[in-house]
Every structure is written in structure tokens, then in C-alpha cells.
Amino acid sequence: MKALIVGTGGVGQSIAAIAKRRDPAGEWLEKMVMADYDFARAKDFCARLGDRRFVPEQTDAGDPDGVAALAAKHGVDIICNLCAPNFNPPLLQAALKARTHYLDTAMTLSEPHPTDPFHKCGKKLGDDEYALDGDFKAIGKYALAGFGVEPGMADYFARYAADHLFDEIDEIGIRDGSNLEIPGAKGISFGFSIWTTIEECNNPAIVYENGEVHTIEPFAELEKFWLPEGIGEVEVGHVEHEEVVQIAHNADRLKGVKKATFKYALGDEFMQAMEIFRSLNLDKKEKIKVGDVMVAPRDVIAAAAPDPNEIGKQYVGKTAAGTCVIGKKDGMERKVYLYQVADNKECLETVGVQVVTAQTGFTPVITMELLAKGSLGSKPGDPKAGVQNPEAFNADEYVALMPKVGFPGGLLEMESEYKITHDRQALLDAAK
After folding, report:
1. 29 neighbors 372 (Cβ within 8 angstroms)
2. Is there a contact between 19 and 365 (Cβ–Cβ < 8 Å)?
3. To 10 degrees, the CA torsion angle through 29, 35, 39, 42?
4. Over the Cα atoms of the chain, what is R_g?
5. 122-161 confidence digits (pLDDT tens)
6. What domains are defined for the chain?
7. I need a surface site. Which of 19, 282, 317, 378 has the fewest CB within 10 A?
8. Mean pLDDT across the chain, nearest whole number?
């Protein structure tokens, strides 16, 4: 496998570090080209890795011809997009031009309904990406869409639950939260891409129900959710996220799931900050004139706020990401939470990046290993090409590899919100 990583920020670095640790002898990873607009950053990172398989390059993610030429130069098998999702369109085109596989961790952006944004969908997350399905099938390659942690791991979990834990599924709810804090710090901080966080927290949230996706106000329907491994109770609310669309797109593979939601624990202070940004139009990505300069308000916030990759190193605590599934097994009601918990201190020591970006990086590595070894798409019913989400693939080998890359999964059998049984390693055993 030869891979081109476009974007050597926190997630790109996480992927490289995890891949190096997972495959030190080059059993499946022959080369990983680390490309960035800032060549110095890519060069410095590759030097720190100290492995000749990791090669720095300069590229512009907005230039599909340039990225395709770079892919051809190194003969890569896959282009991995670790940039903000506004770069998905040119990088999808780069993969088509280079005739390679493609992978991203977030799908193409939505556009709110022009007159009724909190009840009706305009352009949905992923619509522009799914539209290229025929193009990728024509070249016999995958566009692996939404293969991070959320979306990504959470979607593999949905498929795993459908295949092994349920006979019928009523609801799949992605639930995410943490107890991360910076001791002594006041105010909010961004643990992930500032641009993307503002996008998903200020757009209308989405829900899949009764066979269609509809919108709802961001942070609506707050509820308490209990997270494992010492995190405890958090308050979660609706946020726009790809899992809802991906689950809807793959409902036939998920026991005909009737409802899908994404709820995230942001905290009162963070939600208030997002509401202030929205009320002042500071969340907007359209450029306005400030003096003699045209600038997008969101870009100003992203430039002014502390870098998530650096401030994240100060966090203390853990973050949980996972998939709550409700349905029936053998005629009995069942509710489970499949999850992964990562600790910031541990991620800094083993991966070299803060926890949120480290957790986002392991699914692309596992997926590339499966693709390189011929396992991805090899099971009956698996697609052979086209724009595909994790739900499209048998998830057994993915789940089996999670502990081997240092991010083991867990399973909570939830008898009620607070009466549970817990075994972090039970995820693998649940299918037996």
C-alpha cells in the first residue's frame, strides 16, 4: 500500500504515527506521502518519525490537478483527505483524475434550506459525494466517505451491532462526550478543527425518522447520558453530523433501522458561545469586507483561537465516542452502547498528538490495512467500488483490529440508564 496523506495537521500526524507503530516492518504499508501546503511542517514531522517510508511533499489541497500529479509521481493507491471538508470536492476530483481510491473523515458540506432551515433539509451532508458514486465505480475504486471516529468507528459499530447483536433495530443514536479539562483554565477551547466545529454546531441538526432526514435546531432535546470508564453523566444535544445521513443511506444493511440521531456533550459554556457566534454572524463562512480586506468571520475565529493540536496537549481526562443501539434480540428488548474511550495522557505518550485527533486517526489506518490485504470488500454482499460508508462493509475484522492498534472497543449492556454491566473487552465476545 502506498498512501498520499493530504493535510499533516493533528489527524494526519496521528494516522502516520499509528500506521508506523502498527506496521513497523512494512508488511502492508510500503510508503506514506505526507503532503501539506506548509512544506516545512510536513518535512519536520517526517524527520521526527525517522522512517524512510514517510516522505514529505508540498501540495495545495484545492488544486485537483496538482494533487493528482503528486499521486502519480509516487504511484499511490489511495488519497487520504485530512483537510477540512470544504476541500472534499477538489480532492475527490484528484482521486478520480489519478484513478486511485479515496478516503476522508467527514463528508461534503450541507447547505441549509433557504426558507425553513430548522424543519426541512436543503443540500444534505454527503449529497455531493454520493453523486460521484458512478464515477468511482467506473474506475473500479472506492471513495471511502466518513472513515474517522465519528463518522467512521461509530458507523462500523452500527453495522457490527446489526450483524451480531440485534434481530431488529428501532434506533441508532451516536453519543459522544468527555471529562476533558485544562486545569485552571477559563473559557472555551476547541479540541478539533475550529472551522469544522463551528460548521456542525451552528448548522441545523439532523434526524433520520420515518424513512427521511429532517432538521431540528442545534442542541435541541438535551438529555442525560452516562459514559463509561470514569467519565460519568453528561448532557447531550442534537448536532449536525454525518452518521445520521450515513445510517439513513445504509438502512437496508442495518436491520431497517427506524431512527438515527447524533447527540454531543458540549457543555453550557460552549453552547452559549456558539449561540453568540451565530447571533453576531461570526459563524459565517461567506467573506465580508473589513476595511480593504475580504475575510470570512469564521476564518478570523479559527485564526485567533488557540491551535487545537497544541492546546489539546494540556487536557486532562478522557473522551468517549460510541453508538447506542435499541431494538430486539430473540424477541427481547435490548439496548447497548458500543464505544471507545481514549485518555489524553496515554495518546500523547503513544501517538504524540492530543486525544481527539489521535482517536480520529486509528480507523483510517485499520481501513487501509484491510484494503491493502484484500479484506475490505471481500465478504458476501460487500460493495466492490463506489462511494461507500463503513456501514457498507462487514465490520468483524475492523473490530478485531481495534485493540491491536491501541484503541480497544467496549460494550455496555444497558438494562436502564444507570443499571449496566460493563466489560471493555466484551465487544469481541458479543458476536460469539
Report:
1. yes
2. yes
3. -40
4. 20
5. 999 999 999 999 999 999 999 999 999 999 999 999 999 9
6. 2-104 (3.40.50.720), 153-355+407-429 (3.30.360.10)
7. 378
8. 93
